[in-house]
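Hi,

Apologies if this is the wrong queue. I'm a grad student, and the batch job for Protein ImuA from Sphingomonas vulcanisoli produced an output file that my downstream script rejects. I'm not sure whether the problem is my script or the file. Here is the sequence I used:
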Amino acid sequence: MRRPLGVAGLDAALGGGIARGRVHEVYAGAAGEGPSAAGFALMLALKAGGAQGHIVWLGPRETLPHGPGLAELGFAVEHILFVSVTGEKALLKAAADIVRSPAAGTLVVDAAAAAKAIGLTESRRLTLFAERSGVTALVLRGHGGQVPSSAETRWLVTAAPSTPIEMEAPGGPAFAVDLVRRRGGPPSPGWRLEWDRETGAFTPLPGAVPADTGVRQLAG
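Support response: The file is valid. Your script probably expects a header line. Output copied below for reference.
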């Protein structure tokens, strides 16, 4: 089952949308872009689960998303469960337990500070659990070399200029996005997307992704 992201070209590149019941990865495309990657991962989680789907955010207490900030982005905070853990072993165990439960809906695992916690073997286990339960898992990575995994897709994300609105106020959150890996198909780099909080949807923006997103360094 796939959930469309609402951007025709990107959905076509994904074979119809983001696959449910799979593991996906989101990397920060440059140093300091962790918040952009985290925001994009949450938006993917919302699109993967549908407007009324439940989202579980799992990660260290100090990096849990700010509830009022999420509300400003159009998220129904009452549909998000925040789970804090300490240490890589606890993170991995909790991720496996959550993915095994069909009630979880969509899981975002903040592994940005635990790069080695979810490697190839661990991601294979998560993939197996996700396929059985139908839960979609989004693993949030930091900036740096990619970790081998069985992820269905891998994304690199940095912030991009948004469309100005009245009185030159900043527009919605915008991202430069590279789909650098997709199982069964070629990568699709060069997307610029803006998030519309009113509709909970992405809008494609004109222009190319900046050359310093790190695609060449990370996509090997």
